[in-house]
Amino acid sequence: MTARPVSLPLRAATALRGGVTMAATAMGYAAGWCFVICAFFIAFEVLARALFGFSTGSTVEISGYMLAFGLSWSLAHALAQRGHVRIDILINRLPRSARVPLHLLSLGLLGVFIAFVAYGGWMLVDESLLFGASDISALRIPLAIPQGLWTAGLVMFLLLIIAMLLENLLLAIAGDERQVERNLASRTYDEEAQEALEALKDGQSGQGARP
Amino acid sequence: MIAAIAILAVIAVLAGLSLFGIGGLDQGTVLPILVVLVAFAAFFAGGIYIGAALGVLGMLAGFAFSDRPFWAFIGQTAWGPSSSFVLVSVPLFLLMGEILLRAGLSARLYHALNVWLDRLPGGLLHTNIASSGMFSAISGSSVATAAAMGSVALPYFQGRGYDSRMVMGSLAAGGALGNLIPPGITFIVYALMTETSVGALYLAALGPALLMVLLFTAVIMLNSKAAPPPGDRIPLRHKFAALIGLIPVILLIFVVLGTIYAGLATPTESAALGVVASIGIAALEGRFSLRMLHQSAEATARSTAMIGLILLGAYVLNYVIGLLGVPQMIASAVDGLPFPPWVVMLMIIAFYLVLGCFMEGFSMIITTVPLVFPIVMLLGYDPIWFGVIVTMLVEIALISPPFGTVLYVLQGMRRDGKQISDLFAGVLPFVLVYILGILLLMVFPGIALWLPAILGP
Which one of A89, A190, A205 would you mutate to disrupt binding with B, by most B Cβ within 10 Å of its Cβ? Predict the structure, then answer.
């Protein structure tokens, strides 16, 4: 394929999306490790309570905050990896020229919804700050901290949606439908299965399977 | 083409359900429901992200029909499930599954079950069911299970004279037991949305899980001609040697389920212990590395985000339709139907079977349960019982021709060059007995409810 001349706005949009994606990936990794830490934290609390009668008295709250953090910080990363679920049985049967507007519409509506939730999150933080609200756990954690981190993840998600929308809109205008499709179509089961097989191979590379 | 027809069928079912209700409702309330349902179908058909479709519908319904400033509570509505302690168990179980997937246990699991089940009429086919079932119970992803078990199992069958239909059918069917066998994450999501007890659901699932294993075994026994006659007896020494390799996994299952059943830990706490234990197992196997843990963590984050986005959308929608009183409207509409409860229940089951053709299991449960659950309660069914039924329906969806994802994953792995119709034919008897299992559960709810009744809190 011969390289098409790429317009300046498109190049800028691609660079923007690339930058946001890098940040989103880092946040996704942080979210994943948060779950690992969360597991050890809860396990420690359970054992400490059972064996030494010791506990922070805030397990439920803290692990809930860790979930909120992990959940919202991984949202953007999952989008970049095309991991969010859509029902694509019908649109996969449409011609590409019809699929592209649907991809863009799908992303646009996601943006509308996330903007709404992020706004809600921001109001929540604002309120918690105003009243100096803290939870009822033993540690009296100010709610604005976990809610702020949670909202930050939502805002990042929104930023990535906007950046992707911009880039793919310009791509669609430039007539590069193939690339839009590559960027936005959801993952196929083939890709998922391939990933599982690779994970499996990693596991078995040590000793080799016994037939 | 088939998809279009089926979507129309879904719309017809939905419209039919709400039209039936007209008798019991005034015209003003039917219109909003109908609008929402049609918009629902249009969004889904257009391939909108499910979370966004639910959320935007909620926003539209709120702005159109509510005169209250519902947006003032959106933050709280979305924060609630995001920070729920019950839901914490979902990423933890996912993480446990990802670690175990990478711990390289699948081959050993298959081998150990094989030497024990080899001499049953049907031979390796039983191993397929048992190993897929066990693996999917700890893995949490049906696609990962199908890929893992397919890659391990298929080489065993090469040139051994098994009927390829039954081989593929039993592999698929076993994977469809995973969510039913505790600890499945479907139950956690259901429990979160309906405020039922995860522990009670796990207890209730044991009977039906056993029932399905027996039914699947029966299918294979009846088709024992699909397998070559059993080979030489395997010395007991070898059998126990194979079992030793499984001890860590058996201990893990015991720790996770035992602590839940004994009431020693909440499901979230058990999941956390399970993660730590599975890291220990991986280390014991010599397969633990920071890189492997990092990959597991990343995959967990992605799956959690996927479930999380749908949950956010669903909670926003539920909040708005709750304000509008839609669940009560639908419930009273269904109440006005001139059918006995079991007919309505059959309609609900049929609805799930159709919907399951398009939607991945979690999305299906999160999307439908808020609307269907009040109806089920009104009809006088037990919430725990219905949780088991819904989970079984989700499992059927995974292996139903022509759209079941698991089937395509397995088809992609076979090397004998046969068409997918061969696989469809192989899995069909299992799908049918699965539906039979649901009907049995309708007639004898005790299969599910007996254990929680005698052991529950």
Answer: A89
